Amino acid sequence: MIRLRGSRRWVVVAVLALLPTLVLAEVSVQLDARGNFKRFYYLTRKRGPVNVVWAQVRPWVPQSVLLNSIGDNLGDLPPVIEISPVTGNPWVVWPKNFGNLKQLVIATWDIKGRKWTDASPITPGTPLVYDDLGPALAFDGAGTPYLVWWRAEQTAKIFFSTLINGVWTPPLLVSDQSVDSRLPSIALRGTTALITYLTPTGMASKNFETGLLINSAASLMDNPIPPLNTPPTSPGGGQAGGGDGFLKKR
C-alpha cells in the first residue's frame, strides 16, 4: 500500500475512476492563474501485481508540471512526498533505478523557475552495490530535512542523512549493525527524533536528540567516509565518539 505523507489540508490526493485498461499514476503540481504553485497531486493505482506511480493520468496536464513521468518505464519505485514548512513546496524522494540497482534521488518544486528541479542523488558517488529503499522524510519547524531509509545489504541497515549548506550528509548508520533492519519511519517530537523500523523480532524504535543526530551526520562531512558498515574513525585512528558513529555530549 502506498501512503502519502504530510497533513496539510490543501494537499489533494485523488484517484480517478478511469477505464481499467488505462494506467493510473501521476506526480504533478497545480499552478494558480499567475503560474504560482498551489498544490500537488499524487495519483496512483495498483494494476495487477505492479504499483504504477509515475505515468501521466490526465492528458490535459502540461508536461512541465509532471515529475518523472516515465519513471515506471525506467523501473523507479514509489516516492515519499513531504511539504516544507518554510517554503510550502513539495519535496519528493524516491528510489531511482540505475542499472537495476536503486539509488535515492530528490526533486523539489522550484518557485522561481516554476518547474521541478532535476532529480539529484542523496548519496552521489556511492558504489552501486546495494539497493537503497523505503525512504521516509520529515521536517522540523526550521525546515531542516530528516531523511531515513534502509539499504539492502546482507544484513539490512537503516541510515540517516540531512541537508547542510545545500549538500546531503554521508549516510549515518542508526540501526544496529548486526540486526537486520528495514522499512523505517521517522517522527519529530520537539527536540527528539523517533526512528522506527522492522527487525526479525518485530518493530524496533530509537530516540535521538535532534541536535546530536544532525551534528553526528555533519561530522561525516569533515572526515574521510569509512565503509558504510563500519563506524567512522577519528584522525588518530580510534573510533569517533565512542564507536557508534555518534558524537558524545561533553
Quick structural gist:
The protein has helices at residues 71-74, 210-219; strands at residues 25-31, 37-47, 50-52, 80-83, 90-98, 101-110, 115-116, 120-121, 132-139, 145-151, 157-161, 163-164, 167-168, 172-173, 182-189, 192-199, 202-209.
Element order, helices and strands?
Answer: EEEHEEEEEEEEEEEEEEH
Strand content: 35-45%
Total number of helices: 2
Report the span from N to C terminus.
44 Å
Largest sheet geometry: 5 strands, antiparallel
Outline type: globular
Tags for this model:
250 residues, mainly beta, five-stranded antiparallel sheet, four-stranded antiparallel sheet, 2 helices, 17 strands, disordered N terminus
Overview of this protein structure:
By secondary structure, the chain is mostly beta strands. The chain is 6% helix and 39% strand. The chain contains 2 helices and 17 strands. The strands form 5 sheets. Strands 4, 5, 6, 7 and 8 form a 5-stranded antiparallel beta sheet that branches. It has a 4-stranded antiparallel beta sheet with strand order 9-10-11-14, covered by helices on one side. Strand 16 and strand 17 form a beta hairpin. The termini are far apart. The N terminus is likely disordered.
Topology:
Blueprint: E1 25-31, E2 37-47, E3 50-52, H1 71-74, E4 80-83, E5 90-98, E6 101-110, E7 115-116, E8 120-121, E9 132-139, E10 145-151, E11 157-161, E12 163-164, E13 167-168, E14 172-173, E15 182-189, E16 192-199, E17 202-209, H2 210-219
Antiparallel strand pairs: 1-2, 2-3, 4-5, 5-6, 6-7, 6-8, 9-10, 10-11, 11-14, 12-13, 15-16, 16-17
